[in-house]
Amino acid sequence: MEKKGIKSYVIRKGRMSPAQQAAYRDLKDKWVIPYEEQPFDFSLLFPGLKDVTLEIGFGMGDATHQIAYENPEKAYLGVEVHRPGVGKLLDRIEKRELTNIRIVEHDAFEVVTNMIPEGSLEGIHIFFPDPWPKKKHHKRRLIQEPFATLLAERLKPGGYLYAATDWDDYADQMLEVLTGNTLLENRYERFAEPQSWRPLTNFEEKGLKKSHLIHEVVFVKK
Asked: Of 82, 117, 152, which residue is a domain's last?
């Protein structure tokens, strides 16, 4: 039976550009996988690709498509509920002729719980999740137990979980939660050094303009 999870997002209304609308209309059936309460068979979903990385909340897909383009031998599964972002990523998939990305337009907790097999992921990317800055809303943040354990269980041994935020207190929470998880170990003493493989995102640029510090964590499945 499906467990009740956190609601870490609000579906915000956003206007879709003509290009996003066209991409969503024409490409959804090709690259967007319907949500189902049964585990993926990644060998069928990504024929010929062994290493699957899950990205939760890819926004407008700024980093997603670039990472997939630079690593054609790897597979990327993006989860997002913001339809304009899904449309934007679909447009980029088509223009860059990418074949190693699939999308699930659904709640991440339910996708991870019901669709991702245990021990199946090479990596998990969480780039600048909603910080829910008000203290009364901290319970809605994505990186907390039991979701952290759920994510760790989906990683292969040696697989990694990477997360970045520009909110200091959320960074501290991430570090505390992941450090306390018995399935994971920190690749660094505390926060990670800047990861050169991750492209700059729009959220990151906005944070840097406000003089926010970027905090990154990299944990590995024991």
From this structure: 117
